[in-house]
Amino acid sequence: MAHDNNPKHEKEQAHEHGPGRYVVIWLLLLVFTVTTVVTGRMDLHGANLPVALVIATIKATLVVLFFMHLWDSEGINRLVFSVSLLFVIVLLLGVFGDLLTRSPTALPVGAPEPTLEPGPGTPPERAPTQAP
């Protein structure tokens, strides 16, 4: 088997990335880190956890795509990452969906009560009472 020493061919196979690409991603990660700290100190009521999860997901995706070179990868690696991300989303939706549909007595001690309005099937003792 002959070895091809053509420099043009070698250049096509190698993924040349200058430091500029990594500096931009690093700066984006710093911006998202500062955003995490700032939003973590704010009272966003029930939105603190979803905001933190979205920011963490964006940061993890940037690291996987660029620093772990998934952006340049082909086929199965991208599929595995996409399926795992979808799996995490489904699991988180299941957890939060479960928490939102529980009665306040079934929640852990100190947990915020769900903010959903009572529906027509809510028993009278569970419906919010209004002060006279």
List keywords for this structure.
elongated; single chain; 132 residues; mainly alpha; 0% strand
What does this structure look like?
By secondary structure, the chain is mostly helical. The chain has a domain at 17-104. It is 57% helix and 0% strand. The protein has helices at residues 7-13, 19-41, 48-67, 76-100. The radius of gyration is 24 Å and the shape is elongated. The termini are far apart. The mean pLDDT is 78.
User: Count of DSSP helices?
Assistant: 4
Number of DSSP-assigned strands: 0
The percentage helix is 55-70%
Distance between the termini: 92 Å
Largest sheet properties: none
Structural shape? elongated
Tell me the structural class: mainly alpha
Question: What is the gyration radius calculated from CA atoms?
Answer: 24 Å
**Topology as a string of helices (H) and strands (E):** HHHH
How big a fraction of the residues is strand?
Answer: under 5%
Unreliable stretches (pLDDT < 50, length at least 5) are none
Average pLDDT across residues?
78
